[in-house]
Amino acid sequence: MLNKIQNRITQLDNWLDKEGIKEEQAHLIKDSREKLYWHYGYLMALKDVLALLFGKIPIHHKQDTYN
């Protein structure tokens, strides 16, 4: 499992480098939409880690929907 996580980190890191997001840092702008999305993504990542560690999601989790 650790190897899969490390590979995913490498893939995402390379993609973000390619997209130039690391240089932009729009998530640091106060009250920006990007800041909200960054924190939402961080929250989901923390919930995913807990789910992996304990085999369940101990916090209410609303499924994403697409329109």
Task: Give the N-terminus to C-terminus distance in angstroms.
Answer: 32 Å
Number of helical segments? 3
Q: Can you summarize the main beta sheet?
A: none
Tell me the Rg in angstroms. Answer: 14 Å
Which word captures the global form? flat
Average residue pLDDT: 79
Q: What's the total count of β strands? A: 0
Describe this protein with a few key phrases:
67 residues; mainly alpha; 0% strand; flat
Topology:
Layout: H1 2-19, H2 21-24, H3 33-54
Please tell me about this protein's structure:
The chain has one domain (2-54). The chain contains 3 helices and no strands. It has helices at 2-19, 21-24, 33-54. It is flat and about 35 Å long. The mean pLDDT is 79.
What's the quick description here?
The protein is mainly alpha-helical and 67 residues long. Helix content is 66%, strand content 0%.
